Amino acid sequence: MKVCGFSFIRNGVKYDYPFEEAIRSILPLCDRVIVAVGRSDDDTLAKVRAIDPKVEVLETEWDETQRAGGRVLALETDKAFQAIPEQYDWCFYIQGDEVVHEAHYDVIQKAMERYKDDNHVEGLLFNYRHFFGSYDYVGARYAWYRREIRIVRNNKSIYAYRDSQGFRMQPNRKLKVKLIDAYIRHCGWVRKPDALQQK
User: Fold this and answer.
1) DSSP per residue over 95-131, as a string?
2) HSE toward the beta carbon, residue 140, CA cutoff 13 A
3) Do the beta carbons of residue 125 and residue 149 sit within 8 Å?
4) How many angstroms separate the CA atoms of 190 and 188, rounded?
5) β-strands 55-60, 166-169: how paired?
6) Could you give the angle at the alpha carbon of 152 between the alpha carbons of 178 and 190, nearest 5°?
7) 17-43 average pLDDT score
8) What would the pLDDT profile of 111-141 be if each residue is shown by its tens digit?
9) Could you tell me the pTM of the whole model?
10) In the chain, what is the greatest distance between 2 CA atoms, to the nearest angstrom?
């Protein structure tokens, strides 16, 4: 079984994203990770390149006309996903403000192995824990999404949906997924106040 991670980031340092931790958190489960790095005003590109030899950078240019509704985020996600070579079975997506705890590695690995040859399973669904303000507080209201797909098959008919929160199959079908007993920790609201204001 071969696994390729993928992600995107731009101005990660400027906006105080934990993108290095995000990428490192999936590295133990991946043979390779492709990161679409948009043209930045800081040293994000250099920092991504320095993470690990398994990390491959895809330099991109964001289409500023596609910012409405976060569409540009999906386009950048798709660039990284489409760059994954065909020999990989699973593709593990992580955003620049998410991390996977090592306590869940075994569950994730076993799920990928279990469903690798089951073509009825197109993705793996993760539970979410949203930190808010600090790592002492967790968002628990209905507005916080409870689950999202973060591992998909290497099928290029799959695409990032809306603002890249999840995935769909062309033309617009929900993926057939299995919920696994693992969490993605979302840290997007635990950043420096000035960075949040700039964003």
Assistant:
1) -TTEEE-GGGHHHHHHHHHHHTT-TT--EEEEEEEEE
2) 3
3) yes
4) 6
5) unpaired
6) 90
7) 97
8) 999 999 999 999 999 999 865 655 555 666 6
9) 0.92
10) 47
The kind and range of the H/E element at 60 are strand 55-60
Q: What share of the chain is helix, strand, coil (3-state, %, to 5)?
A: 30, 35, 35
CA distances from 150 to 19, 34, 79, 80, 128 (A): 16, 15, 16, 14, 11
Report which residue type is found at 177.
Answer: V
Inter-CA distances, 81 with 93, 170, 190, 195, Å: 9, 14, 27, 28
Query: At residue 196, what are phi and psi to the nearest 5 degrees?
Result: -65, -40
Return the structure tokens found at 168: 């769909």
Q: How far is CA 46 from the centre of its chain?
A: 20
Looking up tokens 């089951």, which residue turns up?
118
Omega into 171 within 30° of 0, i.e. cis? yes
Q: Which two tokens stand for residue 191?
A: 């950043």
- Which residues are within 8 A (CB) of 67 and not within 5 positions of it... i.e. 6 or more apart? none
Candidates 102, 89, 101; CA nearest to 2 is: 89
